[in-house]
């Protein structure tokens, strides 16, 4: 478990002070994939780098598995870092060392014997699917392969936590998918807690359990991905989510419609109920679906439909009330002309 | 006639050539042995690095700059007491090697520091994050990553030493440069002058060529 308590990081130079992280407190549970999102400069990297003390907090505590990292001396901190893996956007591999040597370096830091290192590196390279690249240099690898080496290095000493700073931002979409799948596998099979920064909501939707949204050094919203996606509170969060759940009807299409246009959101189990057909049978209205899709977030369905309702205005109103009551997520986009 | 005077020169040239090699070899070795750790220290004690230490950094930086700002001829004469202390004499190639070494150490240290500065900070940070000790980071990250740069630095230092060693004549150090000055400059002997210059040009070319080759060989990127 990672507990962050009243964490503040201020960068002060002679001229001015920049607040990187502004009094953040949060708890990350064992075995979860925790996402941190926010625009550039929000303080995501600073927060993440405080978790392994690459950045020393100005004040506050970082407690991992019961140990307050800020109280450790150099040697104890190195020991603690063995159990906190980290991967980076630009991989940061040692260019003059082979894939094998890059991974072995982490094990050397843990003072493992030569035989143990040999065995463990091969095991790790097998796991990340790079056994055949053992003796290649980083310059001979693709971005995705480099990140796999980074992951192998980070996992070398069987950490309990893996920190990822924009680990997929330098990769193309299909490579991103494969790296995310690998991270998910690591999380599920090895039970490693993953904290990842991203500005891509797709990534969040794919693999995170909970997320924190950051702005100006503060965490402004925090919750399970499903809750945040279905019920965002802050404007910033909404704008992030809209980037994934794009649901705009073209203007000219909207103008041509004569009925009442509603947007209906189905959450969780409701998505599996027959709300719309019940409504059409109960009320004397006609429904015409203009747009619709079901997203799966954390394996739970989130359905969004845009419908045009035509018929008697009173009936339409009753129908709308009925759906609102059952789904808790109806929004009238345009009333009948 | 020309051939004859050249033939007469051979023993003299031979001796001078060996003296040059001797002085350059000694001072280069000292420069590497002392300058490499000094350069590393200058780098790792810098702000934001894993052995950040402002006091050490500024004291070392000041000493290095001080020595580097003294003209070599003055260093050569000024260090005579030290030379006497270390070698027991103030003349000859061994004595000249002392001042050459003192001048070469900070020169090489700055080159090492510059090569280290070119390493991506993220790579060093990744090593810190992995839980590596400072010594491991120096040995397994900094030195391998800066190897081509340091190799170039050795080449540059060697060539500078060849040229500085010419001034060693002032303290009776000998060497090719000294020969050129004694015969060519004071006695207007053009044959000697041109011959020694040709030899120096060849020597520098060979050093540069060899240095480049080695730098390429050690560059694994
Ligand atoms: N070493 C530093 N020195 C001074 N200010 C810094 C330093 N690192 C970060 N900052 C400042 O702290 C704030 C937060 O930066 P941070 O890198 O954490 O943002 P971020 O959310 O990771 O952004 P991005 O998405 O661009 O990576 C910014 O205003 C930044 O300018
Ligand atoms: Mg960042």
UniProtKB/TrEMBL annotation, chain A:
Pfam families: ABC_tran, NIL
InterPro entries xrefs: AAA+_ATPase (IPR003593), ABC_transporter-like_ATP-bd (IPR003439), ABC_transporter-like_CS (IPR017871), ACT-like_dom_sf (IPR045865), MetN_ABC (IPR041701), MetN_ABC_transporter-like (IPR050086), NIL_domain (IPR018449), P-loop_NTPase (IPR027417)
GO biological processes: amino acid transport
CC per GO annotation: plasma membrane
All copies of domain ABC transporter, residue ranges: 2-241
Highest rank taxon of the organism: Bacteria
Gene Ontology MF terms in the entry: ATP binding; ATP hydrolysis activity
Entries under Gene3D superfamilies matching the protein: 3.30.70.260, P-loop containing nucleotide triphosphate hydrolases (3.40.50.300)
Keyword annotations of the record: Amino-acid transport, ATP-binding, Cell membrane, Membrane, Nucleotide-binding, Translocase, Transport
Family in the record: Belongs to the ABC transporter superfamily.
Protein name: D-methionine transport system ATP-binding protein
Species whose genome carries this gene: Thermaerobacillus caldiproteolyticus
From TrEMBL, chain B:
Membrane topology: Multi-pass membrane protein
Domain ABC transmembrane type-1: 17-210
Keywords recorded for this protein, A-Z: Cell membrane, Membrane, Transmembrane, Transmembrane helix, Transport
Compartments, record wording: Cell membrane
Pfam families found in the cross-reference section: BPD_transp_1
Cellular component terms per the entry's GO annotation: plasma membrane
Segments passing through the bilayer: 20-44, 56-79, 85-109, 150-171, 192-211
GO biological process: D-methionine transmembrane transport
Family membership: Belongs to the binding-protein-dependent transport system permease family. CysTW subfamily.
Protein name as annotated: D-methionine transport system permease protein
Organism: Thermaerobacillus caldiproteolyticus
